């Protein structure tokens, strides 16, 4: 059946196994059509302006650093970081926030991407509208939703009041603030996920759908067996980007709640940011190292697994 | 309407802060001894008021000094601005003159290594000694003020007070009694809190410092040495007051989401009776509710004892500094500009560019006649010597999380005792970062 | 029939939903941009009692010696240069990374992910730029954007190169194409929809950036558009009307760019079908 074989053809060609499963090494080593030096120009930018400064900054995590003076203090910053008040809650918040936002972005982005690739009226308009929030600066988004979600005269609660529902203090209730910010994050970021999924849809050759139709496959069947598998590259990208983004995000939280009320919507990144802003540069660098290790512990295995899955297909 | 406050000239800065009256004013910087053109960059934060003031000052200075041009540059406010200043100083890339805070924040710039010492300039004597100490280290004096001093006080609506026949309270119990009276009367919020802007939550503690000093004159010094804590009286009172006010239900209904602008406008329109705030709120008031200039008054945040009732005073926060990287002709020109900032002419330009928020700290400078009532109300405290400096000008220690902790206490999330304990923990980081003894 | 129902029915429903979810916030921005300062300070969702939009636009445009106009020019220069470089370099890496199996690949992949995870270290980066003589230059800012943005480009390109059948490479090689012409003449054009996607995403990122511009290219004459929004936020007196006018002015041009480019993605749809 064409639907089953179609997705496979791209990887059936010999030697196609990027960075993953063990296969015999390629035969032609000298005149590869894929020259290694293609890595070079990008590598120069990366190493000089990212890698070297990053390694230098790791050193500062072992120091008390005012930007003007540096004093080596060993692992004291790490000890202090783990003594930070409310640290456990920040960890929990970080994971809740990251999985909630990235999950929603993947699902909504996929549905919107597929939907906005189908033949509907106003498609161009809808695509622009969905993408619009991505273009608005975080400060703008923050202030916008502070007003919309105002517990007293905000339009959201006023609308709810029409239906006789008393709206909560979206950003002022300690139990709700984090979730409200997550919703806004999804609103602001789903356009990006949608765009990547639309690009993924474009990459799927139309014949597959036509062939499936001739075989009498239902819409659901096509979606399940053609669209979804062939959107794998897009999914990998969206999952990785939104999860990394979610684990590291603090700017929106910062503008909307400042980690509050109190500390109730603090995440790891906002704790680190507060240290940075208070001028504790060594401590915040140590916090960043911890944050990096946490994110890496989730992302690296996930990336490896997702890519292997993609290669296996 | 409340009777108009008689607008007395707010004389030379903080007389209560013991300003030396020696040395009559030097001439305004009008020398024309320039050899070749010098161009100075002047970095200020991007608040509308400050940019305007800095521009006006630069223009006036350039008019009097041929051959020197000053280009005003801007940076963001808040923590990003702080970090821009620190980064540019640390990487040797600071503008020729820059504006930054005085007090604890200035101490974090390693001034001895990065700033030009101005203690030998002839105009230093004209500065209020309190200001001098807020921009000095053991090794030097580094800054010249822009703008005025201000107070952490309770802004109140005079119409509400007149209507209910209330008197200005001098003890905390009287204050709460007034607030209860307002509550009993109906619609008006007794005490306005605005946690939509978290920084506004700190006034209960920071503005209470006059009362702390009254109870324990050595508190600030002992605190810097690690020998005083907020969990103990007298400093604990600030936390306790906030919790009591919350427990008594004295806040405006929307305290959790209201913003600073809301707060000022509530007390201006009579929707709120009291708003503990810094008197720089005069600027906001004159922008959004100029009609209420005479309606919003100010009184000192009361403590346990009417005898020691007095104002907690902030030195001008906007201060100009010269970085070490400014050398030669530029340094000469920059110093000339500093001398210009010390003249009454420069003060008048500042008063005109924006609503004054309190007395000047420069000898010879005076406020215009028509200052907002909240600023005029400060004068008696200064005249009677009932003022004390805020903690941030007496100790370099200020924990970064105070505002969040205060919001939690003021929202009933955390108890006053826990909040104070959290804050004591929070300041340890700051003390260690500064390398202080005893931490 | 069902197609028609879908086209009109689902389309209309979507438009209604979009109006509620996306246009209402947009309306708020426009309304606030049209208010006077004291009215805007109340931050309420309602029509301005009197429209000041054009006045506000004029104020925002002329503020600080036409700072916004300067900022626009700067942002466009930085965005175009940085995005052009990172798209080409990122595509090269993503392509070889996907196509060629090498024992270095896991390391390169790890670097790519690290680039996404680790926040840039501001002060050491300034030292590096100073060492290279690129600090406070447009070229320096562009280089920084390239270095920080490459990871995203590589990740996306690596994923999407997989959708191009290898047979095409082999056919081209048999036709005598060298590695460079294989990449630029055969592969690069086929990546069109991804390239457009990367351009859109990265252009938005670079255009909306304010941190890097703030630290690596200080000075008003070098301001970028996002920095201008900070002029209207203040602890003491906020001008929300001007802030949102500013937000509006700096959001519309990228939106127009997006509308233009997203047509390019759709155009890619048909070409993809032919080649596949």
TrEMBL record, chain A:
Limits of the ABC transmembrane type-1 domain: 91-302
BP terms from Gene Ontology: transmembrane transport
PANTHER family hit by this protein: ABC TRANSPORTER PERMEASE PROTEIN, INNER MEMBRANE ABC TRANSPORTER PERMEASE PROTEIN YCJO
Annotated region (Disordered), positions in chain: 1-30
Protein name listed in UniProt: ABC transporter permease subunit
Presence of the UniProt keyword Mitochondrion in the record: no
Residue stretches of biased makeup (Low complexity): 14-23
Any Pfam family matching the protein: BPD_transp_1
Top-level division of the source organism's lineage: Bacteria
Membrane topology listed for this record: Multi-pass membrane protein
TM ranges: 36-60, 95-117, 129-149, 176-204, 225-247, 280-306
Listed Gene3D superfamilies: MetI-like
Keyword Glycoprotein: no
UniProt KW keywords: Cell membrane, Membrane, Transmembrane, Transmembrane helix, Transport
Organism encoding this protein: Agromyces seonyuensis
Gene Ontology cellular-component terms listed: plasma membrane
Cell compartments where the protein resides: Cell membrane
Family of this protein: Belongs to the binding-protein-dependent transport system permease family.
UniProtKB/TrEMBL annotation, chain B:
Annotated signal sequence range: 1-24
Key words, A-Z: Cell membrane, Lipoprotein, Membrane, Palmitate, Signal
PANTHER family per record: ARABINOSE-BINDING PROTEIN-RELATED, POLYGALACTURONAN_RHAMNOGALACTURONAN-BINDING PROTEIN YTCQ
Protein name: Extracellular solute-binding protein
TrEMBL record, chain C:
ABC transmembrane type-1 domain: residues covered: 72-261
Example of a GO cellular component annotation carried by this entry: plasma membrane
Protein family (similarity comment): Belongs to the binding-protein-dependent transport system permease family.
Localization annotation: Cell membrane
Bilayer topology annotation: Multi-pass membrane protein
CDD domains for the chain: TM_PBP2
Name of protein: ABC transporter permease subunit
């Amino acid at each position: 059946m064409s639907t089953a074989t179609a997705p496979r053809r791209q990887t059936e060609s010999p030697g196609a196994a990027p960075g993953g499963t063990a296969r015999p090494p390629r035969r032609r080593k000298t005149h590869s059509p894929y020259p290694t030096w293609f890595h070079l120009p990008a590598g120069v930018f990366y190493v000089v302006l990212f890698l070297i400064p990053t390694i230098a900054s790791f050193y500062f995590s072992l120091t008390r650093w005012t930007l003007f003076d540096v004093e080596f203090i060993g692992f004291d910053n790490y000890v202090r970081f783990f003594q930070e008040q409310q640290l456990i809650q920040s960890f929990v918040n970080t994971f809740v926030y990251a999985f909630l936002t990235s999950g929603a972005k993947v699902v909504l982005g996929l549905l919107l991407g597929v939907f906005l690739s189908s033949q509907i009226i106003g498609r161009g308009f809808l695509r622009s509208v969905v993408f619009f929030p991505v273009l608005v600066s975080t400060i703008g988004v923050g202030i916008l939703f502070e007003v919309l979600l105002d517990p007293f005269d905000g339009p959201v609660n006023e609308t709810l009041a029409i239906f006789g529902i008393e709206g909560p203090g979206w950003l002022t209730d300690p139990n709700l603030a984090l979730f409200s910010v997550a919703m806004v994050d999804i609103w602001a970021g789903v356009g990006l996920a949608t765009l990547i999924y639309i690009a993924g849809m474009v990459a799927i050759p139309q014949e597959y759908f036509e062939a499936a139709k001739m075989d009498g496959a239902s819409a659901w069947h096509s979606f399940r067996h053609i669209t979804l598998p062939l959107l794998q590259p897009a999914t990998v990208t969206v999952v990785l980007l939104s999860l990394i983004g979610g684990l590291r995000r603090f700017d929106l939280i910062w503008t909307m709640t400042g980690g509050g009320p109190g500390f109730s919507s603090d995440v790891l990144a906002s704790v680190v940011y507060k240290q940075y802003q208070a001028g504790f540069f060594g401590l915040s660098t140590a916090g960043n190292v911890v944050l990096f290790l946490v994110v890496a512990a989730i992302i690296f295995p996930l990336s490896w697994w997702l890519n292997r899955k993609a290669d296996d297909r | 309407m409340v009777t108009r406050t008689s607008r007395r000239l707010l004389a030379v800065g903080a007389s209560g802060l013991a300003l030396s009256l020696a040395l009559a004013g030097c001439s305004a910087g009008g020398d024309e001894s320039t050899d070749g053109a010098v161009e100075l960059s002047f970095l200020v934060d991007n608040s509308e008021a400050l940019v305007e003031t800095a521009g006006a000052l630069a223009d006036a200075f350039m008019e009097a000094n041929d051959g020197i041009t000053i280009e005003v540059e801007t940076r963001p406010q808040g923590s990003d601005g702080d970090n821009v200043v620190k980064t540019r100083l640390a990487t040797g890339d600071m503008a020729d003159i820059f504006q930054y805070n005085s007090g604890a924040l200035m101490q974090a710039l390693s001034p001895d290594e990065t700033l030009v010492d101005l203690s030998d300039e002839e105009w230093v004597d004209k500065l209020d000694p309190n200001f001098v100490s807020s921009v000095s280290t053991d090794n030097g004096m580094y800054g010249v003020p822009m703008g005025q001093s201000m107070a952490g006080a309770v802004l109140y609506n005079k119409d509400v007070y007149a209507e209910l026949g209330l008197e200005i309270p001098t003890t905390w119990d009287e204050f709460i009694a007034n607030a209860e009276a307002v509550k009993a009367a109906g619609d008006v919020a007794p005490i306005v809190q605005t946690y939509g802007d978290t920084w506004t939550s700190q006034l209960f503690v920071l503005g209470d410092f006059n009362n702390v000093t009254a109870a324990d004159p050595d508190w600030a010094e002992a605190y810097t040495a690690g020998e005083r804590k907020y969990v103990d009286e007298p400093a604990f009172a600030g936390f306790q007051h906030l919790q009591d006010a919350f427990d008594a239900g004295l806040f405006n209904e929307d305290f959790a989401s209201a913003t600073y602008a809301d707060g000022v406008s509530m007390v201006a329109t009579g929707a709120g009776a009291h708003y503990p705030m810094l008197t720089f709120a005069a600027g906001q008031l004159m922008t959004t509710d100029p009609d209420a200039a005479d309606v919003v008054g100010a009184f000192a945040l009361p403590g346990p004892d009417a005898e020691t009732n007095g104002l907690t005073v902030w030195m001008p926060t906007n201060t100009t500094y010269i970085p070490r990287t400014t050398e030669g002709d530029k340094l000469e020109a920059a110093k000339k500009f500093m001398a210009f900032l010390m003249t009454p002419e420069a003060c008048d330009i500042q008063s005109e560019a924006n609503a004054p928020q309190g007395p000047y700290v420069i000898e010879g400078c005076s406020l215009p006649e028509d200052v907002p009532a909240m600023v005029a109300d400060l004068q008696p405290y200064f005249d009677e010597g009932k003022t004390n400096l805020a903690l941030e000008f007496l100790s370099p220690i200020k924990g970064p999380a105070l505002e969040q902790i205060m919001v939690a206490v003021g929202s009933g999330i955390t108890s006053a005792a826990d909040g104070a304990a959290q804050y004591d923990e929070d300041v340890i980081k700051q003390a260690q970062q500064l390398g202080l003894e005893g931490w | 029939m069902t197609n028609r129902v879908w086209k009109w029915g689902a389309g209309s429903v979507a438009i209604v939903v979009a109006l509620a979810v996306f246009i209402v916030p947009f309306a708020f921005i426009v309304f606030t941009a049209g208010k006077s300062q004291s009215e805007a300070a109340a931050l309420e969702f309602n029509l301005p009692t009197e429209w000041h939009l054009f006045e506000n636009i004029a104020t925002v445009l002329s503020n600080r010696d036409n700072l916004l106009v300067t900022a626009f020019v700067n942002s466009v220069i930085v965005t175009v240069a940085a995005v052009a470089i990172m798209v080409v370099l990122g595509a090269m890496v993503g392509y070889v990374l996907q196509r060629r199996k090498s024992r270095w690949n896991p390391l390169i992949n790890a670097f790519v992910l690290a680039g996404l995870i680790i926040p840039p270290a501001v002060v050491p980066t300034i030292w590096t730029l100073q060492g290279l003589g690129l600090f406070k230059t447009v070229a320096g800012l562009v280089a920084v954007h390239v270095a920080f943005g490459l990871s995203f480009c590589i990740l996306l390109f690596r994923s999407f190169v997989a959708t191009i059948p290898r047979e095409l490479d082999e056919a081209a090689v048999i036709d005598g194409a060298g590695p460079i012409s294989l990449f630029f003449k055969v592969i690069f054009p086929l990546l069109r929809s991804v390239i457009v996607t990367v351009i859109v995403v990265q252009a938005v990122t670079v255009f909306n950036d304010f941190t890097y511009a703030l630290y690596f290219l200080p000075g008003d004459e070098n301001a970028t558009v996002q920095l201008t929004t900070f002029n209207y936020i203040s602890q003491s007196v906020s001008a929300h009307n001007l802030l949102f006018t500013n937000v509006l002015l700096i959001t519309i041009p990228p939106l127009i760019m997006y509308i233009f480019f997203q047509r390019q993605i759709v155009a890619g749809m048909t070409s993809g079908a032919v080649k596949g």
